[in-house]
Amino acid sequence: MLQIDMIMRTLAFKYTLAIGVFILLVLVGFFIRGILLSVLNRAVKKTAMRLDDIILETVKGPSFIWILIPAVYFSLQILPNFSEHWSQIIDRVFLSLIIISVTWTLANGISKLLAEYAGKVAPALPVTSLTQNFIKLVIIVIGLMILLDSLGVKITTLITALGIGSLAVALALKDTLSNLFAGIHILVDRPIQIGQFVKLDSGEKGYVTEIGWRSVKIRMLPNNTVIIPNSKLVNSVLSNYYYPERELAVLVQVGVHYKSNLEHVEKVTIETGEEIMRNATGGVPGFKPFIRYHTFNDFSIDFTVILRAKEFVDNYLIKHEFIKALHKRYKTEGIEIPFPIRTIMQEK
Question: In CATH, what number does 248-333 get?
Answer without folding.
Answer: 3.30.70.100
